[in-house]
Amino acid sequence: MEKYNNNIDGTIDIQEQMAKNKKSAKKKILWMAGIFSLAAAVIATGTLVLRKDLKINPLLAQNYEVHGVDVSHYQGTIDWAAVKEEGIEYAFIRLGLRGYESAKIVLDEYYEANMAGANSAGVAAGVYFFTQAVTVEEAKEEADFVIEHLKGYDVSCPVVFDVERISGGKGRADQLTKEERTDITIAFCEAVRAAGYTPMIYGNVVCFTRLLDMAKLNDYEKWYAFYDDYMYMPYNVSCWQYTEKGLVEGIPGNVDLNISFKTW
Asked: pTM (2 decimals)?
């Protein structure tokens, strides 16, 4: 999601993906660096047409309820009417971030335009915030910032806490213990919930297996980034970000694509 983050780097060429998806499904086993023996191996066959020329193999959900994108200033100016016409039903819009060196909380420069555009076009909206909080107090400060900037907008989808680390160990929060990061996550989510919004946690396989104590986070929605034909995760997830190389009419360049397994 964040361009300077070390997400699972499984970039996808859409045409290549379409060709791959025509092949029979195969079992895959995910091993996680000594801490994750076998997450799950779920087999599915066939393809599901999500958008005009995008296909992906079905997994986990019996029915795909909603298909969406997540955007930030990296996408520039978006034609939200065209996005809606393309069939995109929801968007997670980056509200802001805390600087990974400066610790300054910053509003995404396209946040207001994106929220107004999505609301106007009838695209359901949620938001996400990239955290670099190193204390519970800072997490609450981030939540207060987010809640303040939700005022005046229709926010029907979750408010998301992005807990990824910065690549290369440069982030101020990279050295947090699992317990510390979990407490910080809970503090943010509880503040969001108290304000009347649905909290959600975004992360990749490293976040959900090494950085957080997932047993303490069962009460919150999960949004999982995993760039492959199939998704493997032993925890319940509500949303799957399956590529960062999607193409959607109305959005310049590449964009993250998501499947949501539920509605809010």
From this structure: 0.79
